[in-house]
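Catalogue entry: protein

Sequence with per-residue tokens
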Amino acid sequence: MPVVKRNLDAFALGVRVLTKGTFGVDNRKYKQKSASTTRPFKSVPVAIEMKNFKIFLAFLMVFALFTHTETSSANDMSRMATIESLVNEHSFIIDNSRFAGTINDILNRDKYFFQGHYYSDKPPVLALYSSIFYWILKNVFNVSFENNYHLTYYFLTLLVVGVSSCLSLVYLSKVLELFKIDGNWSNIVLFITGFSTLILPYSTVFNNHIISGSLLLFSFYNFFKIEEGIKPSILAGFFLSLAASIDITCFVFLPFALIILFNKSLKTKTIFVVSYIPMIIIYFWLNYYNSGSLIPAAMNKTLWDYPGSFFNEQNLSGLAQQNSISHLAIYSFNMLIGKRGLFSYSPILLFSVFALIKTICFKREFEYRKEYLFIATTSLAFIMLYILRSNDYSGDAYGVRWFTSLMFILCIPLAHIGDSIKKYKILRNLCNRSRGGTSCA
């Protein structure tokens, strides 16, 4: 399968590049140096920050190279319409946006009709955030859709989506540091996360899935540190609520988070819940402001009842469902391992599943076992929601774009199979080949 081959080639390249220390700090050299220095305690944070800067910069250069310069789907056109309208007209109404198109234009179908005007069906929080960058580009640098459409789209995508991916990979590195993972294997995990999953293609186009996935990772990072005080509890709740306000399916993470917090102190649980609430209030208020209902526009069938509307309750994600058990079985197969499958487009995640099973079922002494169970159950619930309440494989996107939100957190368990993976001959040979014949064993 071509997709699998591309991912395996990326994995092989990643081993070769990263084990030469492209992103990371060589642990052995650092230990030798720190042993002779008189100020080791100041050197440690400096070395870590330098490593994080290298990670950010390396991925940013790659994403900058491949970032698109024009819209390519109804999804990003709808988002650009709101961003342009917010800056030009200070309104969520997209009637006058160049991206709103004509009523019969299939690339402009992601819009609903309310009180005589068209609106984007996308949750508006991301558009509000992105409009800040567009305002700066237009009013400070004189770069706008009116005078330089391609450059404007490029910078908006890079600054909003690409930078978010880079920050997430830095935070993934922080998670691996928290686990005290070997430097070389840590670098490999970072590389295959960034280049052998859906992260790469969706870091180069404008979408909400990278942003929500980044926020989930930020939240999980603070879950891992939640015993350290008030700040991690606040950040875990805030980032999780922000993810939900950008991708409504991320609401599924809340009940599981509360289960994880069940045995924590009342203070920790209270702080988490209180920090979660404000963003959700804003989210529902924006729904009401733009559609007259608390129900998300993408799930409110009354908003799509207008001449020329492409959507109805039969094909709106969140309302759609399969006609029969056989259709559901075929759809599930294609969503997971078939023509649009999660594992077809990101086969490295098979090892994440292996790692989750290994740590949850066979390592009961593992310090973060509950958090890994959280990753497994919430990811499964997230995937099942889309399987049960959609029927179009996320449109014409590469793979199933909805699953991009899970990529960062699903790659965390790869941290714990560095030794186990060498036991498999095919992977050991791949690793040896990628390192120029040097043994990985």
The first strand starts at residue 111 and ends at 114. Strands lie at 111-114, 117-120. The two ends are 28 Å apart (CA to CA).
